[in-house]
Automatic annotation (TrEMBL):
Gene name tied to this protein: LOC103721403
Domain AMP-activated protein kinase glycogen-binding: 223-300
Name of this chain's protein: Protein PTST, chloroplastic isoform X4
GO CC field: chloroplast
Any Pfam family matching the protein: AMPK1_CBM
InterPro entries the UniProt entry points to: AMPK1_CBM (IPR032640), Ig-like_fold (IPR013783), Ig_E-set (IPR014756)
Length: 302
């Protein structure tokens, strides 16, 4: 567009139109200034007036719907409007900048959306921690099973050794009771036959004690019951640090249900409690320890 034709320009007697290149603004616009010159003779002196219009040449803002057309009457006898070119351009730039910011900048998050994002982040963090805890718990269970298998193997080997020692003790006792031969030497005041018998008996007793210690480390299968109407029953306790517990399977019979589960526990004393439909309850069939909120059922494994 070389010249901007308006009704005001057509009314001028003689005028010239020229395009004055302007700077590139920070918003990426290429405004051009269109200047009009009009000269007239008034009181033997030639007076000239310049009319300038600034318009953008960027193709985006040519099609923008928010552009406004501003018009003002122009007369040769009147002084220019108090609104300067800079102020006009600044107002236009403000409109363009506001519209562009509305298009480009994202809207601020509402408080509910921000809370939702924060809660989702916390939920993901807790889920990740729970997953890591479950993985570590499964790892501990596998390690416990490996040690349990090794313990069972060790107990079987001790049992075989105990039988061998028992047979040797019987033979030594038979030799000692057969009589002392001439020339037999003594050890600690005892004949060698009697000394051998006493040593074998001592070793036999130690092996039997070790077998008892292994039995204390061995898991025992304990069956627990809960009787009543419920949708879900879970037994929690000190046997796993009150972490996961064990789900109990229901067996319906008439007007009530019988929930049961089997725990593998080592000999000892354990505190347990039943989680029935999300509420803590005690079993009347087991003894209790503690008071108030700290009251639990006592489970003794021998």
């Amino acid at each position: 567009m070389a010249c901007l034709k308006t009704s005001v320009i057509r009314k001028l007697d003689s005028g010239h139109c020229s395009v004055i290149p302007s700077y590139v603004s920070s918003d990426g616009l290429w405004p051009q200034r269109l200047a009009y010159k009009h000269c007239a003779s008034v009181s033997s002196a030639q007076q000239c007036k310049f009319i300038s219009v600034i318009y953008p040449t960027h193709p985006l803002f040519r099609r923008h719907s928010s552009w406004r057309v501003l018009a003002a009457p122009i007369s040769l006898d009147e002084e220019p409007s108090s609104l300067s070119e800079g102020e006009n351009f600044d107002g236009t730039s403000e409109i363009v900048s506001k519209d562009a910011s509305e298009m480009l900048l994202p809207q601020k998050l509402k408080s509910d959306e921000l809370k939702s994002l924060l809660s989702d982040a916390e939920r993901q963090k807790l889920t990740r921690k729970l997953s890591e805890a479950n993985q570590y718990n499964r790892f501990l269970k596998r390690q416990s099973q490996i040690k349990e298998d090794a313990l069972v193997k060790f107990k079987s080997e001790l049992a075989v050794l105990e039988l061998e020692l028992q047979a040797l003790v019987g033979l030594a006792e038979e030799v000692a009771n057969s009589g002392v031969q001439l020339g037999s030497r003594k050890i600690n005041g005892k004949y060698i036959q009697s000394h051998l018998l006493s040593r074998l008996e001592a070793v036999h007793e130690k092996v039997k004690e070790q077998i008892k210690d292994v039995d204390l480390l061995k898991f025992e299968e304990i069956t627990l019951f809960w009787i009543g109407m419920a949708e879900s029953v879970q037994v929690m306790g000190s046997f796993d640090g009150w972490t996961q517990g064990e789900e109990m399977s229901p067996e319906y019979s008439g007007d009530y249900a019988r929930f049961s589960t089997t725990l593998k526990l080592r000999p000892g004393r354990y505190e347990i409690k039943f989680l029935v439909n999300g509420e803590w309850q005690l079993s009347p069939e087991l003894p209790t320890v503690g008071e108030g909120m700290m009251q639990n059922n006592l489970l003794v494994v021998e």
